[in-house]
Design a protein that fits this description.
The protein has 386 residues and is of the alpha+beta class. The chain has 14 helices and nine strands. The chain has helices spanning 19-31, 34-42, 62-74, 80-93, 105-113, 116-132, 159-164, 205-210, 231-239, 272-277, 315-323, 327-338, 349-370, 375-381; strands at residues 145-154, 179-187, 193-200, 221-224, 243-247, 257-262, 281-291, 300-305, 384-385. The longest helix has 22 residues, at 349-370.
Length: 386
Amino acid sequence: MKINTLYLPGFSHRLCGRRSRRAVQDLASRAHRLDGLATVVNRFVPAKLFEGWGERRRVYTPWVTFCAFLGQVLERRASCRDAVRRVQAWHLVIGSRCPVDDRSGGYCQVRGRLPVQLLQKAFTQLQQRCAERSRQADRWLGRTVKVIDGSGLSMPDTDANRAVFPYASGQKPGCGFPTGKFVGLFSLASGHLIKFVHDSWHTGEPPMARLLIEGMQAGEILLVDRGFSNWFLIGLLQGKKVDVVMRLHQARKTGTGAVCWDRPQRKAQWDIEQWRELPKQLQLRVVRFRVEAPGFRTEHIAVVTTLLDEKKYPDDAIAQLYLRRWQVELNFRDLKTAMGMDILRTQTPAMIEKELYVHAIALQRRARLAHRDRSAARCAARSIVL
């Protein structure tokens, strides 16, 4: 049945053809071609950003190299030879007479010379655009919420990678892969990646999280799991006037409601100047609730927060906010499973850093799609028992 009149009473607008869906499919098919991908990316990361970086009249300009590299990441398992074929197809589309060699050596060399500072600028510009497009309606009780979480990485077993990212504990030489850690700061509202750090598996995630604090602004809220629950991190955030909602660490025994934590003795890895600036006591609040939902491993959860106003921030609101922390796991699913960041493919630590930045840029493109999946958190929110 064909409906020519839009929004007839009692009829859904979804019955009026598939024009919008076809447009989306056309955009997706264009993005699989290098010329289409460049057109889409140019809307968010302008090509002029890549001008003036040693560019001359050649096949693999910085902009072409970046788009080809991004295409490799977006299409998992794409090889350098696949990237060269995309560049060849692009030159055929634009009618260029410049021959493109079938071999991938030239592309790999130019990709290796692509400055990491250029990728950092592209990532920062795209991150700022995502932040500007965030809506007031997506905030939690009118406040911006950000999430920190970490995950593991592996990479090819080369001498250069092994020198910076050693094997995990228990692995014999030649029987494993170099292993690293990735800790990112995400927006809870949009799912986009704001800032990230990476290091070897020897470095703990809480020290890495301290490097991300500069990505927080006064008045915001940080949402983290109990792996990041420590006195020093809360004290640093309080100094920036940033509130926290984090799961209580299993080693800390405390009551429910208003609590006071004394400053512990300084550890060797804590900077003495920062230590002196921290308060001697932290006024906190502990909220306990139970989750009765199939598929949730934990039933009893204790959350510690600096949001002390129980009228403005009731216990059920704190509980529902913490359960939304699962969204960051979906962001990592996109990074590691959909785009293949769980196993990096480059051969040197310098290229590993560039590959991580390209993955981060690709995630911003997928952030809205990843943010759609909230069914688990919504289901759990209906099953909270205080």
